[in-house]
Records
---
Amino acid sequence: MEKSEVLEKVNEVFIDILDNEDIVLTYETTANDVDDWDSLNHIQLVVAIEKKFKIRFTSQEIQSWKNVGEMLDCILTKVA
Amino acid sequence: MFNLNDKFRQEFSVSENVYNGFLAVFQDNNPLHTDNAFAQARGFKGKVMHGNILNGFLSYFIGECLPTKDVIIHKQEIQFKNPVYLNDTVFFEAVICDIYESVKALEFKFTFKNAEGVVVAKGKIQIGILV
């Protein structure tokens, strides 16, 4: 799977969980750039992404992400 | 503490106390819930208990019946499949169907059955473990 394809799928998850059709994620996007990406929604986002890609993250992986691009890299290592 | 497919069971009674307490607090006096004749005219055996009484039982299960009190409900969904009547006993069963260790969250599938073994409600609930 290409990184751009993962970005598209993750974007769909964000739109669904945050109820915001206007979200357009980039590799550089951080929580500060997206309205309502707070700690509670972060849990729902992670759960939804784990479900969508049928993968599991560790808490260390989640804490290491600096932006969406790093999240996508992590997903790619698990779906490859 | 929690493992996939762990199963929990609990029995609840939709007693006069529970019913009257729900009515007193939430004031949903719709005749389907308060008038036997009204409910019977619409094909039910008698007045139908508020579905959200079952959500109260669900709250009790999460808050009081798990092996830790460090829990919080993140989200839940419930389908009401069959009516529950006054003084019915309902048999609750929940199974852990997913564990998200990365964010300390669990998901249960649950059912409520009546004394005849008929599913009266079913759904999913996701909780977080606080510490």
Note: Chain B has one domain: 7-129.
---
Amino acid sequence: MGNTQPPVVKRSLFSWVFANNAKYQILLVVIIMVTVFARVLPLEMQKRIVNQAISLRKIDLLLRYCSIYIVAVVTASGLKFLINILQTLIAQRATAEMRKELYRHLLTLPLNFFRKTQQGTIVNALAAELALPGNFVGMAVAVPVSNILTLVAFAGYLFWLNPLLAAVSLSIYPAVIFLIPLLQKRVNRANKQRIDKARVMSSKVAETVSGIHEIQSNGSFGIESRKFDRIVEQLYKIRVRWSLFRFGIKSTNNFFVSLGPFLIFILGGYLAIRGQLALGSLVAFLSAQEKLYDPWKELIEFYQVYQDGSVSYNRTMKLFDIEPEHVLEPEGREPYTFKGAIDVKNLSFATETGIRLLRDVTFSLKPGEHLAVVGFSGSGKSTLAQCIGQLYKYNDGNLLIDGHEVSQLTKRDIVNNVGFVAQSPFIFTGTIEENLLYSSAARFDGQGEIDPALLPDRDDRIEVLQQTGIFVDVLRFGLNTILSRDENPELVEQIIRVRRNLQEDFGEQLSEYVEFYRSDQYLFYSSIAENLFFGTPNREDLQVENLPRNPYFLDFLKQAELSMPLMGLGAELCRQIVDILGNLPPDEIFFEQSPISPDEIETYKALSGRLKQARLHRLPPEDQEKLLGLALRFIPGKHKMVALPKLLRELIMEGRSIFREAIQKDLPGAVTFYQESEYIYSQTILNNIFFGKMKTATSHAQEKINQSIIQVLIGEDMLETIIEIGMQFHVGSSGDRLSGGQRQKLAVARVFLKAPPVLIMDEATSALDNKSQFRIQNLLDTRWKGRHTLISVIHRLDTIKKYDKIIVLKAGKIGEMGTYEELMEKRGMLYELTGGKR
Amino acid sequence: MSSPEGNDNHGGSCEFQDNISLLRETSFFGALNLEALKVLAYLCSREAYKPGDYLFRQGDEEGCAFYIISGKARLVLETENGINEIRQYGTGSLLGTLSLVGHTRRLFSLQAVDELYVMLLEREKFMKGIAPFPETIPKIFQSLANIIVSWEEQFIGSHDGSCGACTSKIGVSIL
């Protein structure tokens, strides 16, 4: 079935019922047959117990019929459970399958679709709206078959018992069948509105999340809340209406069905009195009539699920019912391998609303030639790049790669031959390495998992890291990694060895930027708690956040005469920070140099108010705790709003030795003290190599440190190990743990690693510093020219001199074209552009 | 001077307090009210440079102002023919305030001549730091205008209004 199926958005809801599930559905029907039989059997037994066993007073018959009764009931319940299992399985498989197929389809939709459709709508459609149709698929065979069969079986039995009575008691159902669809129409209308409104709500939430900066900086909480409230109110009304109509159907149904026994009592009672109906038969008739109710109710519910499910299904599929602009895989041939010749003739592109972004663009490039596209913003540079990259479908003209029209090529042909770096590239959640291999892996992506042997090896990976300049960043990620205890035992040994050499060779040079751990020196770049411990606590109650409540530690502070001075320091910190930051917005940047986090500032604001009114030792214990905690977190080298008094510093140094002695005596093993021969597992690789901490994290200091550290790591043959650890760094959701420059470098690196015949760069280095831009440009000029065709949209004109051709675009047209020298000599538009910069 | 190790805190001053006094001495920041000045002083950091180190390079867009606490720095223009020194700056000089206000490219490089110790303020911090104090913004415009005009005034004064070829290039203050 798989290949001949129409695209997912064209499939009917019913097509899911048997697709991939035929086996289960057939099994289900067989089980249902048995179940129905097992359900009718007790009725007959019931009749025989009354009519034969009881009236003839035969114990053996009573026992036999009762045994059959119980076996039938147990079997029926067991089978019912089995039916439920199968139904669930089918429903969930269908939902999962719909989601997968729809997601696959979604990925191929034209960019235009995503520009026009709100994110929340898409999320809601995929996440929420497919559950109901899935439920329907699960029920589609089981429920009607089992219930209709049951109904028919019971009805047949009723007719067999008494045709007249049966006909009368069944006469209510046609009325129900007539009424319910009328009500259902209104349910469906409400349901459509519900889906649409739920989408609006999802979009609103999604918009809020992406625009939260703007909301918070404008303080527009009220405006946004009111907008949201309005949507929720509307949804609330629709949902109430929807639910009421649904219950209306249920109530109508219940009412009519409960008329059944009434008719039987009237007519059956009359017949029994007249002696035309045995009492046992009346009992059996009443039971059977009662049993009609359940399957009927289930059928009605099924009808509702079907209606709701198909409304959701059709609405969802309609949303995504757009054809992809390009075929994914070539059929009947291998994907092309291009040399990279590009011919563009009279290329035009207009938006759907008719705005012409490109007009009559004509140029050609031989394989390996490099083209720079320049012009003011809005001149169509990016559009041109995106048309060549098959991201937009041009309306008019020709665009040929090695003689093949780009619009006719499959996605596979483009993926194998073209690399595209967007201006603000997207980095995916995962590690650096996964992102680095992203483009290369997509090339070899077939049906199953990708064979790792096809992917670029470690040396290639490291080479592109260096070429794009992200190498130092990855090195830093590696160095900032905290190793867990059983990881890399060899590396740990190596690091301890390196530690000594580093101090001998670079100790003096680095001391400007690094504070080494010395047991007899105060550590200005570590917290007071770390200064007291000079080690890593191994117990939960000795972690810094728990110290102000730890009686053992508090006792020690008293003994070391530190309690009051630390509390005083905490009070001073609290006052100063609240004074400086108290009325500022809770922006991360204000709190980088503060021991109080944005979430805590309100608490400390209140505390600073109380400090004005009471002396320190009069404060409530929880305030004292907070001040002590603040002091323990204080890092004098980083939190510069307060100075650490010399006296306190000396007291802390004395405290350090008192603490060590006490711990070793009272709680041996509770703290691992810093020792030059031991790895510190609570700290980063870098701190371990230094056996110390960096004083500042500025780029200037980092550059200085990198020089020494790279030298040491190369000497010890550790550089690649650290880089590999760095490549496992998790970039955060959408790469938010990386800077803009790092994201661009990573995006360039992943395309370099793929090394396609045609490379398109759309202002791909705009967020990079000068040095990195020139490094990458230099690489393109020397290593890529002549081998790979390059089309580069450039906003900085000092890097274009070595390009083979330059196009100046103006309002979607080529204003002029030529080499740098030609155009500068001509004193035309390029000259003007560069002149404008001066 | 004010590195935490060296500060024995006799007078109870700390780096933050020092930063406030340094900023107040400058004509650019001096006019700001104390509340805004406190925030900016808090957001400043310190950095040490070795002779030959660059504080920024021509073409960089980092956006940062420097106040020289001690030492000397030289402003240089890097051309295809080599490096031309424009002039040197010593203790008390404030450089790069224009790059705090807008995203611009460095047209010169700044290099440490000897052991250089500076206080610095980055554009992002400056922008976010003054945002809660909108009343400071006109003062900053005023300071900027003052600096540009007085710079050109001095230039014209020192050239007696006639410096040959350069006359045609003066007039930055009428931009």
Note: Chain A has three domains: 2-319, 342-468+740-837, 518-673.
